[in-house]
Amino acid sequence: MAAAKSGAASAELVRSFNAAVAHHSAGRLGEARDLYERLLKRLPDHPDLLDLYGTLRHQLGDHAAAAAFVGRSVARRPAAPAAWNHLGSIRRALGQADQADSAFRRSAMIMPAAAEPWINIGIVANDRGDPERAVRAGRRALSVQPSLTEVRVQVGAALSALGRIVESLDALLPVRRVAPLRADLALHLSAVQAAVGDHAAALDTARRGIVANPIVHELYPRLLGVRDPESDTDAFVRWAGFATCLRPGEARLWANRAAELYRAARFDAAGRQAMRAGVLEPADRAALQNMVSSAYSLRRFEHGRRVAQWCLAAHPGAADVRFALAEIELVIGDLGRAWTLYEARIVRADAMPRLGLPPRWDGPGTEDGPLLVAAEQGIGDEVVFLSCLPDLLDAVSVPVVVEVDRRLVPVMARSFPGVRVVARQYPADAPGRRLLDYRDLVAREGLRRVVFAGSLPRYFRRDRSRPSDRGGYLVPDAELVAAWRTRLAGGRPATTVGLVWKSARMTRFRAQFHAGILDWAPILAVPGCSFVSLMPGEVDAEIARVRERLGVTIERPAGLDPWNDIDSLMALMASLDVVVAARTATCAFAGAIGVPTIRVAPSYYRITDDRDLFFANVTPVLDRLAAFDARVAAEAAARLLSERTSQP
């Protein structure tokens, strides 16, 4: 009789246990909890019950209690791999990375043929910011179970974090063939494709990911981040808007929308969306940064300064905000402070990685051996900043090596025969020109210090009331200059004028600083001038339109490649009487070779009025606080050109 009762009790326990597990598996956690707790009163030390109940408490968010129950389970049955794996997940939820890693490794040691512990070891490694260990763990998991697509994606993401972009691409592309609809694949593969410069493929991957997973809001910011930096269609504003519809309470998505509106030159709207992000999250860095950038573009400099200061109080290390504040201070603040803030550009999120640089040079007297002047930013900025190179050479007595865009090497070497001039240090095997590697150059030249070209004004252009009296610093090829003068001679009016009316890479953001060629009618109407195009790219239709509408001929020199053959372009400009140029790199080239230049824009970086801080031969037509107005700018440029032609 006693045996029968015992058997019945055991059968009841088994039925209750099975019912609890069934409820648990079906997600009916409340029912499962009640049954587990009743069973634990009868069997308080049963390892399976302790493990399952602890796991359920973990699922309910009570991680501390969960750790206690599963800890008791593995203490009573230390060879249970699943319980160790559960304990690792609980420790991870508690933020105990070391204990989590240890638990997962115990599980892997007990059951080496299981992939799950190694997957979790990789996840913990990613939590710790250790992608190298994440790669190793992922590969161990794949050696056990090669078909794990989620692990292949994790390995590819970790390789990308290590900067091993080609390996990452090789890991991720095969996953697309077997699991093309995965959202995490779209996130990571699109980023890697963009990193190697294949923006079209990256955009396609991100779009496919959104089509397959339209409610995964993380894909929308990724779509915006991988496109070609020059692209600015309304589609991207709409994509950003879709994301805010999916998650209207997420400040980051409103900040992204603000950034897209800013890129589209819709500055008022950008500022409003950034403010909305700020309402949701008052200390959101991206929101505050977009407010600052919008204020700058709207010339609300004092407001932008205040917002930047608020942001830096909350985020002292925000390099993008420090840079935005630097741009404001260049216009309205102390120039020395502005250049100090401008150093933030070197560590901005989009700054190109540089390997093997020596320690920074901190001004005259801190050099202790050969000095590298490192290139940065665009070629136009490079030419502007290097106008300070003669000042540097006067201030130091050590050998100097100057890194420039490869197109500038001939003219720089000619202009500074005592300086070693090298092209930008892109590694031959690095895809997409996404990093610079100085290790060989530093070893070969014995370089001890580095100063970035954009840091030179910090030491040599600190006072806006004392602009440079130097009219140019580059020496064009004398034979090419003579050849151009011969080609341009004969039957021309007294004044030959070079024209640059827009950026070669026009976007809507850049369009705010430029006018159409027909808007330059006042300039083209100045008597006594012949006009020569210095524009790269296809502009024949615009030149024809000027001839048809205004009856003015703009010559386009045959054989000139202004984009690639900058040496010949500079020689042509040196043979001209004056250059009239919009806000472009070519305007900087004209200033650098000393030709009289009318800049149809404010001065460089809006620092000065009437004349430029860097080039004495460059005259801006707009004050630094003025908005760009095509009609006003063209009429002012025409007046300056008329004065020039009337001079004997």
UniProtKB/TrEMBL annotation:
* InterPro entries associated with the record: OGT (IPR037919), TPR-like_helical_dom_sf (IPR011990), TPR_rpt (IPR019734)
* Pfam families per record: TPR_8
Q: Source organism's superkingdom?
A: Bacteria
Matching entries from Gene3D superfamilies are given as: Tetratricopeptide repeat domain
An example of a GO molecular function for this protein is:
protein O-acetylglucosaminyltransferase activity
The record's TPR repeats, renumbered to this chain, cover: 81-114, 115-148
Keywords assigned: TPR repeat
Q: Which residues form the signal peptide?
A: none
The Gene Ontology biological process annotation of the record reads: protein O-linked glycosylation
UniProt protein name: Tetratricopeptide repeat protein
